[in-house]
Design a protein that fits this description.
The complex is a heterodimer of chains A (210) and B (245). Chain A is mostly helical. In chain A, 70% of the residues lie in helices and 0% in strands. In chain A, 60% of the residues are buried. Classes of the chains: A mainly alpha (210), B alpha/beta (245).
């Protein structure tokens, strides 16, 4: 099994669906430790991606992700715009013009996405940010791909499960980056909204491949 | 053409207001706001920032050098000044999209003070590096006593200055915002470390904390190749009352 442009379009469509469904949940999470706009921003950003997909159909997974990067950076507004924008842009660059993505290329693209987020946001593991979902996801994806037995679906499932566990693990952390860091110790006891939306995006990738 | 400046803020009103304020002191400098989202909400927009950078970069090239001023190809350079975290990230992302980001520098500076200092430096003909330095110096130590105690003024102060002078403020309002911006902006483009009554002469906010009124004597000390020019520059401005009554 390989992932193609149809998968990418389905993935982005499911992302838009997930952000709409979890909009209120993300707003509530962000209200506790941020500026309560994350759900609104992510929903708006992916609705704009959906609109772009309606205008033209990307020919490769890389082209779909690059369009997503531009759109999120321009429409999201908050910090998630440049962070997810950079993630999608770096993943698109990693995939290049390939029409199909195999397990190794997928793990490489996920790694590039995570590295982009780290480069842009300067957050490290344990800072209570989306990096705490992405880094376990990348580690799990690479382990699955390197094992040689997992197909792309296996790599995606490993990444999504690790991201979901990573998001839960942000609960007790004290935020050291972003708006939540102003709260200091009071940020403990809340789940990081960026880690949750990251897990939703990776879970949508599984749905598109299944 | 001078160095141009792009202001990236989460708020369209903040960006527009800051540009309006700085333009008063730098009428010949192209200062472009990129505030808020495409649809007027609080946030930052890559499209707005890219559009401002293209406009800023497109201005000088074609007219003066006969070169095509494409995206981000700023003939004289552009300094980008931002507010909170994601404005910085959006500005960095914009640089990633530019074909030639070489002439575009991000300044790590307080938005309003940094912008005014940068605008005044650009108005004075400073190059892109010096304009950024002027902006960043505006975020310098606000409490000179503390920085002096911790030795933060730097090792230069332990050696005798290369040039020095004493000048009495003659204008009614003394060292208020506009004179401080002129002094700091001009000094930022010189190759000299300058202290005025112990504070960094290139820091507009540092100069304002002196609270120096009419009749106060400013003791100027300068180190470096441009030390003499720096002291003359400050002396000239002070003795002319900064062009004010």
């Amino acid at each position: 099994m390989v992932l193609d442009a149809n998968w990418a379009v389905k993935w982005l469509t499911l992302c838009a669906q997930a952000m709409a469904e979890h909009r209120v949940e993300l707003i509530e999470l962000d209200r506790a430790i941020g500026d309560s706009d994350h759900g609104e921003n992510m929903d708006r950003g992916f609705q704009a991606v959906l609109a772009k997909l309606g205008e033209s159909t990307p020919e490769t997974p890389g082209a779909a992700l690059k369009m997503t990067a531009m759109t999120l950076m321009s429409k999201v507004g908050g910090a998630a715009g440049p962070l997810y924008g950079t993630a999608f842009l770096r993943a698109a660059t990693a995939l290049g013009d390939s029409a199909e993505v195999d397990a190794a290329a997928l793990a490489g693209a996920l790694t590039a996405a995570r590295d982009g987020i780290v480069a842009r946001g300067k957050a490290e593991s344990g800072d209570k940010t989306m990096v705490d979902a992405w880094t376990p996801a990348v580690d799990a994806a690479r382990a699955a791909a390197d094992g040689g037995t997992a197909d792309v679906l296996g790599v995606l499932v490993a990444a999504a499960e690790a991201a979901e566990a990573g998001a839960v693990a942000t609960d007790p952390m004290i935020a050291r980056k972003g708006r939540a860091s102003y709260l200091g110790e009071r940020s403990a006891g809340h789940r990081d909204p960026g880690a949750v939306s990251s897990a939703l995006i990776l879970r949508a990738a599984v749905g598109a491949a299944a | 053409m001078t160095v141009s400046i792009v202001v990236v803020s989460h708020s369209e009103k903040i960006a527009d207001g800051a540009v309006e304020l700085a333009a008063q002191m730098a009428p010949d400098v192209m200062i472009l706001p990129a505030g808020g989202t495409d649809d007027g909400r609080i946030g930052t927009s890559l499209e707005k920032v890219l559009a401002a950078l293209e406009q800023a970069g497109g201005q000088g090239g074609g007219q003066e050098d006969g070169q095509a001023g494409g995206a981000g190809v700023a003939a004289n350079g552009t300094v980008v000044i931002t507010d909170l975290g994601s404005a910085v990230m959006t500005a960095e992302s914009a640089l990633e999209f530019l074909e030639n980001p070489a002439g575009v520098l991000l300044a790590d500076a307080p938005l309003v003070e940094g912008l005014v200092a940068a605008a005044v430096a650009a108005q004075g003909g400073a190059d892109v590096q010096a304009v950024r330095k002027a902006a960043e110096a505006a975020g310098g130590p606000a409490h000179p006593a503390e920085s002096a105690a911790s030795g933060a003024v730097g090792p230069v102060t332990s050696a005798a200055p290369d040039s020095a002078g004493d000048f009495e403020l003659v204008n009614q309002a003394g060292m208020h915002a506009r004179p401080a911006a002129k002094v700091a902006g001009g000094l930022a483009s010189l190759d000299a470390e300058v202290t005025i009554n112990g504070v960094d002469g290139a820091s507009m906010t540092g100069l304002m904390t002196l609270g120096a009124g009419k009749g106060t004597v400013l003791h100027v000390e300068a180190w470096g190749p441009d030390a003499e020019r720096a002291v003359e520059y400050v002396g000239g401005l002070v003795e002319a009352g900064f062009g004010e009554p």
